[in-house]
Design brief:
Helix 1 crosses helix 2 and helix 2 packs parallel to helix 3. The chain has a six-stranded mixed beta sheet with strand order 2-1-3-6-12-13. The protein is 30% helix and 25% strand. The chain is an alpha/beta fold. It binds ribulose-5-phosphate. The site of ribulose-5-phosphate has 17 residues, from helix 2 and helix 4. Ribulose-5-phosphate binds next to helix 2 and helix 4.
Length: 232
């Protein structure tokens, strides 16, 4: 099995976050994603704000918002504005059509709401995130807590192998919205759009981690290089 050097990945995340931060222009309304790469993005943008850049941000998680506040990045709180110029976020997987799996950090609901409001979605990833077919990464499905047993049963019958996400101390993981996550160990997803439609139709499912037709561009760090993929 191939071993992946954690320091190489960390360096790639920093490099791609710094490249993505250069895409923010003065006076933009920017969605800030979530996860370790997104935190590096916030740090890179914080440096630009300290140097005089002015823009306004919408955070996709409490964690990202806290980091942005540390840098005095102005944040819109409350309802997400109906139109955002640009969202910049990480991903757990992407394929050749720039379809994504997201939600490894459990912030998929806010991430998808902000992405759907954005004119453009820019994705930042290290080289391990590129896949030939989605599904090796367990697909997160966010579920209303009272529906958790029923939805799990339903997804099991669909052969999606759902597993309740737990915290390190064994408690059910809770999202910023107070929901739980079922991680589905599907393997290769042959028809992502059909699966997305199926999941959207299950009562109790709030959102799922398939981000289809949302990403416009992916920046992928490979060592010291940044590769750019654009949706045709
Ligand atoms: C959080 C996400 C993240 O963007 C995804 O998990 C990638 O995270 P990282 O940048 O830490 O590799 O979807 O819900």
């Amino acid at each position: 099995m191939q071993t992946i050097d954690a320091t190489v990945i960390a360096r790639e995340k920093t490099a791609v976050a710094e490249a993505a931060a250069q895409r923010v222009e003065p006076r933009m309304l920017v969605g800030l994603g979530s996860g370790s790469t997104a935190l590096k993005l916030v740090d890179a943008l914080g440096e630009r704000v300290a140097a005089g850049l002015e823009f306004v941000a919408v955070a996709t998680s409490e964690q990202t918002a806290a980091r942005a506040r540390r840098w005095d990045i102005p944040l819109i709180t409350g309802p997400v504005p109906p139109r955002i110029d640009l969202v910049i976020d990480g991903a757990d997987e992407f394929d050749a059509e720039l379809r994504l799996v997201k939600g490894g950090g459990g912030m998929l609901l806010r991430e998808k709401i902000v992405a759907s409001a954005a004119d453009r979605m820019l994705v930042m990833v290290d080289h391990t995130k590129r896949v030939e077919a989605l599904g090796a990464f367990p697909l997160p499905v966010e579920v209303v807590p009272m529906a958790r047993a029923r939805v799990k049963h339903h997804l099991r019958r669909l052969k999606l192998a759902p597993e309740l996400r737990r915290t390190a101390d064994g408690q059910p993981f809770t999202t910023d919205e107070g929901n739980v996550i079922l991680d589905c160990h599907i393997g290769r997803i042959e028809r992502p759009a059909a699966l997305a439609a199926t999941l959207a139709g299950v009562p109790g499912v709030v959102e799922h981690g398939l981000f289809l037709d949302l990403a416009d561009e992916v920046l992928m760090a490979v060592g010291d290089e940044i590769e750019v993929f654009t949706r045709g």
